[in-house]
Amino acid sequence: MTALLRVSLLAGLAATTALAATTLAAPAARAAGADAALIAAAKAEGNLVWYSTLIVNQITRPLALAFEKKYPGIKVQYSRAPSTDVALKITTEARAGRIQADVFDGTNTILPLQDAGLVQPYVVDSAKGYPPEFRDPNGLWTTMNVYYLTVGYNTDLVKGADVPKTFDDLLNPKWAGKMAWTTDPTSAGAPGFIQNILALKGQEKGMDYLTKLAALKPVNVPASQRVVLDKVIAGEFPIGLMIFNHHVAISAAKGAPVAWARMEPVVGTANLISIVKGAPHPNAARLFLEYVLSDEGQREVAKAFYLPANPDVPAIVPDLKPKEGHFQARVVTPEMERAGRTAWIDLYHKLFR
What we know:
Layout: H1 3-24, H2 28-31, H3 36-45, E1 47-52, H4 56-70, E2 75-80, H5 83-95, E3 103-106, H6 110-115, E4 119-120, E5 142-154, E6 179-182, H7 190-201, H8 203-215, E7 219-221, H9 225-233, E8 239-244, H10 245-253, E9 258-261, E10 266-276, H11 282-292, H12 295-303, E11 307-308, H13 322-325, E12 329-332, H14 334-352
Parallel strand pairs: 1-2, 1-3, 6-7, 6-8, 10-12
Antiparallel strand pairs: 3-10, 4-10, 5-8, 5-9, 5-10, 5-11
Helix pairs in contact: 1-12, 3-11, 4-12, 7-8, 7-14
């Protein structure tokens, strides 16, 4: 383990341990945002089925095991797939009259399932202190964890005054053909960058900026944000756009020559968790959401090196979140996605493909 990772882990675990101590004085049920009646009803059902988009070994399995340990008698079954596949699977099962999932998560699952009438509203008591942009007022979705995307750069190739600090710094002709980003057509890819620029600069100045950036021909990489970052680390590109800052932290802790720029506002995307309408185990679903979104559950999220949505639970590397890292972020909500996604994608294809 590197010194950086050791220090980061110790700092993060110390913070989460201190937070745990403050909640031990409260009854266990209250700490998880669940009352005795809900717990009893959930245990009577005995099972929970979770369709997840998260990495099984890193977070899904550990979180399921933590829930099972806290609530003996409830068995969690889980599977993993991309957001679009999760939405399609639930829709297909519903049409066949065989709904199997109780809960689902994802960055892009909520809108198609909401449109299909397959989301059961539930206002999560554990999340009542979350920021408004992290929870639907009607309980259709709540943010489980957050992703922050910004510029990642190779520290061997980009140094000192050359490190971009603002979006305008990216327009330097020296970066022509030397920047890369994923072709992911969501707010975690180029469309998210485009919406951020338009929101920051306004339509006229934003379009002028995007036109100038397009002239520098950022390279479209038909792969994930992680693959783009790996190419930056390997020196294929000095700069990667729309890179997850926690991926940078993980790689840097292992000795990779990479850092991320606090280019404000950083783009935020949310992994949302919801209950399936007609869920076979509705009480277990409610209890699971209460647990996952409680301080206790969010500490499990942090242990997995994800960024907890709960503003009171720090990340293992605290400065990856806006408050501790002293940076501003603009979180793309489902409502923003619905209103603007088609236009953002059209601009991406018009200017950058």
